[in-house]
Amino acid sequence: MVSWAITGATRGIGLGFVKNLSMDPNNQVFALIRSLGTAGPLEELAAQRKNIYIIVTDISNPTKLDEAAAKVSKVTAGSLDVLILNAGSAGPDTAVLPPSTFHGKKEALDLEIGENIKNNLLSNIYTMNSFLHLIRSGAEKKMIFISSQSGNLEFTRITGFSTLLGYSVSKAGMNMAVTKFATELAPEGIKTLALSPGWVNTDAAKAVTGDPEIRKVMLDMFHKVDPKVDGPAPIEEAVANMLRVIRNLTEADSGKFLTHHGDEEQWF
Ligand SMILES: NC(=O)c1ccc[n+]([C@@H]2O[C@H](COP(=O)([O-])OP(=O)(O)OC[C@H]3O[C@@H](n4cnc5c(N)ncnc54)[C@H](OP(=O)(O)O)[C@@H]3O)[C@@H](O)[C@H]2O)c1
């Protein structure tokens, strides 16, 4: 048995991981979600596949996370092989603004940065710490953070992607936290990775590029790093690519920020 826990498992990439992994009865899949409100498709799948365990928790609350880890521990007898930190969002409406437009808007800037740091960085550190004792006893010993190309300096510099300030800062900050965990935990054989999923056809992607004009602006920027990219990839394809990278993760690559192709260049 290989045990996997995935945050943000109701929709999009998170649900894609659950669908893929639960096909194999040798996997135990823990779907960590914040609410059953959006979990209809996940609940339907869990009704058919007995290796899916749905756990409602709050990743911004370490006490609730400890309780969630205790529930996983009951099923696995005290271990977890792979933790996937997938839950994430781009935060307030001000995400469309470039940094200099926040001059004179202190409250808006505090919210733009603060909300994203809370949701995409602090919550992930809480989650890693609450599940670490289970990972220590696991066979795989892997903690994977689903990052974003917009948290990469070179991608941002070349594309000219000046918006999504708080989101990008929070993803870049969490990439560093992932490296810190890697350096601390290497002596125990625990491996961490920040992993970009590519551009994936989820609700989050549609919210940004659903408008044809915005989609064209995005494509013009993305073509500066990859002239061939023509739109978001299907969830199934992105998940299969990421699982290949996760399964191939060794101590030599622990703490890196890799693309879904397993390198540091092919963002699409
Ligand atoms: N799609 C892309 O092209 C793309 C590109 C780069 C990076 N990513 C990253 O990939 C990850 C998954 O994104 P997605 O495209 O699958 O997004 P999505 O379709 O919007 O799904 C997001 C999932 O995360 C959950 N979630 C969001 N904020 C949360 C919070 N504060 N606490 C708990 N759960 C939360 C949502 O739960 P609810 O159902 O309860 O809302 C949902 O299950 C994110 O970290 C995102 O930054 C995606």
UniProtKB/TrEMBL annotation:
Pfam families: adh_short. GO terms for molecular function: oxidoreductase activity, acting on the CH-OH group of donors, NAD or NADP as acceptor. It comes from Clohesyomyces aquaticus. It comes from the Eukaryota. Transmembrane segments: none annotated. This is NAD(P)-binding protein.
